[in-house]
Write a structure and sequence with these properties.
Elements (H helix, E strand, L loop, with lengths): L66 H4 L17
C-alpha cells in the first residue's frame, strides 16, 4: 500500500508546496533570507557565507557538524535519519 502525506510546516491547512509562506513567519518564501546576506534563500548557493558553494561545502550550514554526519542523525531512534523523517 502506498500513502502520500504532504507536509504543512506552519499548520495553516495549506500544504507547503502550495503555501507562499510555508513557515508562517509573515515573510513570503521567495523573499526569505535566513543568513542575511541579501540573497533570497532560493537563489543562495552559500548558506553559511564561507565562500564555498553549498554543493562543494562539507558543512554547508556552518554549524561545525559535517553534513554527512547530520544526515545520519536519528533523534528519535526509529531507524529513520532525521534528514529523511517526515515532520
Amino acid at each position: 500500500m502506498f500513502s502520500c502525506r504532504y507536509e504543512d510546516q506552519d499548520g495553516d491547512g495549506i500544504v507547503d508546496y502550495l503555501d507562499l509562506d510555508d513557515d508562517g513567519d509573515g515573510i513570503p518564501d521567495d523573499q526569505e533570507d535566513a543568513d542575511g546576506d541579501g540573497v533570497p534563500d532560493h537563489l543562495d548557493d552559500d548558506d553559511d557565507n564561507d565562500g564555498v558553494p553549498d554543493h562543494l561545502d562539507d558543512d554547508d550550514d556552518g554549524d561545525g557538524i559535517p553534513d554527512k554526519e547530520e544526515d545520519k542523525k536519528d533523534s528519535d531512534g526509529d531507524g529513520i535519519p532525521d534528514a529523511h523523517e517526515e515532520l
